[in-house]
Amino acid sequence: MNKIIIGVFITLSLLSCGKKSDNVEKAKANDIENSINKDDRDKSLLQGIWATSKEENASFIIEGNKIEYFEVEDTSFHYQLKDNIYIVMSNNDTISSYKVITLTKDSLVMMAKEGNIITLIKIIE
After folding, report:
1. What is the DSSP code (8-state) at residue 69?
2. CA 82 remoteness from chain centre
3. How far apart are CA 92 and CA 49, in angstroms?
4. pLDDT digits (tens, 9 = 90+) for 19-35
5. ∠ Cα 112 76 69 (to 5°)
């Protein structure tokens, strides 16, 4: 009788571990999907013309995954936004990267590797 109870207990324990594993895998998949969706939402917020203030001239424009700096004529770069890191690239080489602190429909606050805080205002969508 004791062997049967111990066997049932072990079986139930093993089954519950399998369910937890399935739940962990589902949670990981949801986290990845939410991260991808968040990056896509954030990319849509980046679209437009950005400046350091409304009184200043535009610094750059983002269209699609392309960024053009007004100070650098006839040159466009690409960018990636992944896990709140904004990466500017040229020919698949990283030129600079920034940690995105805040991104809304009309403002962008980033931190450079050196610790400088960069605040930008969207002047035209």
Report:
1. E
2. 4
3. 23
4. 445 555 554 444 444 44
5. 55
**Stretch (H or E) spanning 41:** helix 2-46
Q: What is the pTM of this model?
A: 0.65
Q: Which of 91, 100, 97 is nearest to 119 (CA)?
A: 100
Could you report the per-residue pLDDT of 31-53, keeping only the tens digit for each?
Answer: 444 444 566 678 899 999 999 99
Rounded CA-CA distance 93/113 in Å is 17
Assigned token pair, 82? 């992944």
Element (DSSP H or E) covering residue 22? helix 2-46
The amino acid at 52 = T
- On whether the CB atoms of residues 91 and 83 are closer than 8 A, the answer is no
What's the rounded Cα separation, in Å, for the pair 38 and 50?
21
Domain covering 2-124: architecture: Beta Barrel (2.40)
Residues of the chain with pLDDT under 70: 1-40
Domain map of the chain by residue range? 2-124
